[in-house]
UniProtKB/TrEMBL annotation:
The chain crosses the membrane at residues 202-221. The keyword Iron-sulfur does not apply. GO terms for cellular component: membrane; mitochondrion. Keywords: Coiled coil, Membrane, Mitochondrion, Transit peptide, Transmembrane, Transmembrane helix. The lineage of its organism: Eukaryota, Fungi, Dikarya, Basidiomycota, Agaricomycotina. It is a single-pass membrane protein. The keyword Transmembrane applies. InterPro entries: CCDC90-like. Gene3D superfamilies: 1.20.5.340. This is Mitochondrial protein. Pfam families: CCDC90-like (PF07798).
Length: 225
């Protein structure tokens, strides 16, 4: 750059042109990062595609010396090289983008698989727990049925035993009542027999008294004559 300041005034217009091109290349070579990341970067191309000889000739035609033109060319080449390096550093290559995209897909697939596995495990556990609860409920129902059946059988047995006991007591009471009735009838028959005997005795006594009284009356009547 110091060699450029020592150029004659006649050659400074060409130098300004070259520097403006350099400034433009530098300004356009560093766009914002958010715009650059949306594009891929092809492999680094060599500067051999740039016709340096033709550029030097154009500078010489504009009034620059060969040495000055080569110096400007050297500076411009360095600027372009730095710009390309800056762009390559700020950009993300297609391979890296594909790698990042593939990594994200793999991570997403792994996360999805893990979520599905967890969901499947949760569903399996819930189903197993539900089956266990249903089995416990069925066991409780069966136990309740057995308890109810056992209780009903016990109640029926107690009722049958109570009915049998009441039937036996009723039979015993009936037998006792029959015995009492038989005894009462026997006593009544005995009383009737005694009454008949008493009546017969009284009748005999009355007949005897009447007969004796009649005999006495006849004897008295005979004596009074």
């Amino acid at each position: 750059m110091a060699s450029l300041l020592s150029l004659p005034i006649a050659n400074r217009s060409a130098t300004r042109t070259a520097l403006s091109l350099t400034h433009t290349a530098r300004r356009t070579s560093s766009p914002p990062l958010q715009h650059l990341r949306s594009f891929g970067v092809s492999p680094r191309r060599s500067l051999s595609h740039f016709d340096t000889y033709l550029f030097v000739e154009k500078l010489e035609k504009n009034g620059m010396t060969r040495e000055s033109a080569e110096g400007v060319m050297s500076v411009l080449a360095e600027v372009i090289e730095e710009s390309i390096k800056g762009m390559e550093a700020s950009l993300v290559s297609k391979a890296e983008q594909e790698k990042q995209r593939y990594t994200e897909k793999v991570d997403f697939a792994r996360l999805k698989s893990e979520l599905q596995l967890h969901e499947k495990n949760d569903l399996t556990l819930m189903k197993a727990e539900n089956d266990r609860l249903m089995a416990d409920v069925e066991k409780l129902k069966q136990r309740l049925r057995e308890e109810v059946t056992r209780t009903q059988a016990g109640v029926r047995l107690d009722l049958n035993l109570e009915k049998g006991r009441i039937r036996d007591e009723s039979s015993q009471q009936e037998l006792k009542i029959k015995e009492v009735d038989t005894r009462i009838e026997s006593e009544i028959a005995g009383l009737r027999t005694q009454i008949e005997q008493a009546k017969f005795s009284i009748l005999q006594y009355l007949v005897g008294v009447a007969t004796g009284s009649g005999a006495l009356l006849l004897a008295y009547m005979r004596m009074m004559r």
